[in-house]
Write a structure and sequence with these properties.
By secondary structure, the protein is α+β, with helices and mostly antiparallel strands. The protein contains 7 helices and 9 strands; from the N terminus they run αβββααββααααββββ. A hairpin with a 3-residue loop joins strand 4 and strand 5.
Length: about 250
C-alpha cells in the first residue's frame, strides 16, 4: 500500500518487530474503575415509593373553629450513599372545618406538584408568608404575628424544610446574642423600678393585640411588633427600637 508523504522528511529509523512488541509489554494495565451509580435528583418523573417519611403539624388559628393538621411527606433520594437527601414530595391538610375545603385541596395539589417538579422549591415559603387576610391577622404562640392562615401554612412548610436541612437559619454571632440579652435585662430592670412591666399608655395601645395572643409571649408585655421577624419583641430603649428576638435596631 503506497503512502504519499506531503511533509519534508527530517530523519528516519528502522522499526524492528521486537521493538513493536516491547512497548505493548511494558505498558501497565490500568485498573478498571468501578461503575459509578447515577445520582438521582428530584424531578417530575420520579415515581412515588410505597412508603414515605414525613411530619404532621397542628395549626390552631382564631380564624378557624377547628384546628388544621398539615402533613408533609418526604422522599429519600440516593438512600445509603453520600448523596442521600430528603426532599418534600407531597402535602395534605385535614380539618373538621369544611368551609374552606375547596381552596385547601387546591392549595395542597398545587404545592405537591411543585415539590415533585424538583429544583429549588424554597421560594414557596416566602410566597405563602406574604399572603395577607383582608380581615386582619393574628398572633400565634410566642408573640409571632401571622397575617393570614395561608401565611401560617407557609411558616409550617418553612419549619419542615429547616428540619430536613433544606433551609438554614443564618447564624447569629455571639456579640449580637450578648447585646440582646443585655438589652432585655436592662428593659426588665427599668420596668421593675417603675413597679410595672409596661406603662399605662403602652398597655392601652397593645390591649387588642394581647387579647388576640393565644398564649403569653416570652418577651416583655410592652413589646411591639418587629417589622423584620414579625415577632412581638420590639422595645424602646434610649431612643432606639430594639428587637429582643432577631436583634433588629432602629434609632431616631
Amino acid at each position: 500500500m503506497a503512502i504519499k508523504i506531503e511533509k519534508k522528511i527530517k530523519g528516519y529509523n528502522v522499526v524492528k518487530p521486537e521493538d513493536k512488541a516491547a512497548p505493548a509489554a511494558a505498558a501497565p494495565i490500568a485498573p478498571k474503575e468501578p461503575p459509578m451509580a447515577e445520582v438521582i435528583q428530584m424531578h417530575e418523573s420520579v415515581e412515588r415509593p410505597e412508603q414515605l417519611v414525613g411530619s404532621t403539624f397542628k395549626i390552631k388559628s382564631p380564624l378557624f373553629e377547628h384546628a388544621l393538621y398539615v402533613t408533609i411527606n418526604d422522599i429519600v433520594l440516593n438512600a445509603g450513599t453520600k448523596y442521600e437527601q430528603r426532599r418534600p414530595f407531597e402535602i395534605f391538610i385535614n380539618s373538621k372545618n369544611m368551609d374552606h375545603f375547596q381552596w385547601i385541596v387546591a392549595l395542597t395539589r398545587i404545592l405537591s406538584a411543585v415539590f415533585r417538579k424538583g429544583g429549588d422549591v424554597t421560594f414557596i415559603v416566602e410566597e405563602l408568608k406574604a399572603v395577607f387576610d383582608p380581615r386582619g391577622g393574628y398572633f400565634k404562640a410566642g408573640g409571632i404575628y401571622m397575617p393570614s392562615i395561608v401565611a401560617e401554612i407557609g411558616a409550617v412548610i418553612e419549619q419542615h424544610m429547616k428540619n430536613i436541612g433544606l433551609i438554614h437559619d443564618p447564624e447569629m454571632d455571639e456579640s449580637t446574642r450578648r447585646l440582646i440579652a443585655e438589652k432585655r435585662a436592662a428593659y426588665e430592670q427599668a420596668g421593675a423600678k417603675k413597679g410595672t412591666d409596661v406603662t399605662a399608655a403602652s398597655a392601652g395601645a397593645h390591649s387588642t393585640a394581647a387579647a388576640s395572643t393565644p398564649e403569653s409571649s416570652s418577651f416583655p408585655p410592652g413589646a411591639t411588633l418587629c417589622a423584620k421577624c414579625n415577632t412581638q419583641a420590639l422595645v424602646l430603649m434610649d431612643g432606639c427600637q430594639t428587637c429582643l428576638n432577631c436583634g433588629y435596631s432602629k434609632c431616631g
